[in-house]
Amino acid sequence: MSYSLPDLSYAYNALEPFFDEETMKIHHTKHHQNYINNTNSILEKTHFNSLSIEELMSIFNEISLENKTVLRNNAGGHINHSLFWKGLKIGTVLQGDLKSEIDRQFGSLECFKSKFEDTALKHFGSGWAWLVNQNGVLSIVSTINQDNPLMGKSISGTSGYPIIGLDLWEHAYYLKYQNRRLDYIKSFWNIVNWDEASNRLLK
Ligand code: MN3
């Protein structure tokens, strides 16, 4: 089995004006595709090539491969972007259990947003900001490069099941926002797919 680029469930211009069409198109068809191609070429001749990307993450710590760092960066890129696209949609509303948990654990949605923005802004260089579920405790964390919390603490420096993820690589925003990373981060709130996030809380 080899991985393939997942279709988006929306058009490249669907997230305008927050995420622009050109960035979305390049990000999906070039960057994400490249992570997939590299992952497939590494796994081609291994016995790991029958695993789903989630299964691969769950055993990542135990994998022994000469080019494991290259796999970490590219398989991480594949799962991260797959999560990212599904987590974006205009017009959803935070409600239900996820709303209750955010209110209970962070004080309010506004407090949560401000803490997430702070973590994302202070993350140095390329990486991702996450809301993760750590056995019922919601935490805001960031990871470097293409690490995913599902890789486990010894690799990614954190753990938990991702509920929301935001790409902090310049390729995700530079065409539209240039150096204004905070504007990009704040624009994310307009297109978080809260329905998808709520589904992920239950997993
Ligand atoms: Mn990216």
Domains (count): 1
Distance between the termini: 25 Å
- What is the mean predicted local confidence, pLDDT? 97
CATH superfamily: Iron/manganese superoxide dismutase, C-terminal domain
Low-confidence region ranges:
none
From the 3D coordinates, which CATH architecture would you assign? 3-Layer(bab) Sandwich
- SSE order: HHHHHEEHEHHH
Reported for the largest beta sheet, the result is:
3 strands, antiparallel
Order of strands in the sheet with the most strands?
A: 2-1-3
Helix content: 40-55%
Domain Manganese/iron superoxide dismutase C-terminal: 95-200
Binding site for Mn(2+): 27, 81, 167, 171
GO cellular component, one term: cytoplasm
Function: Destroys radicals which are normally produced within the cells and which are toxic to biological systems.
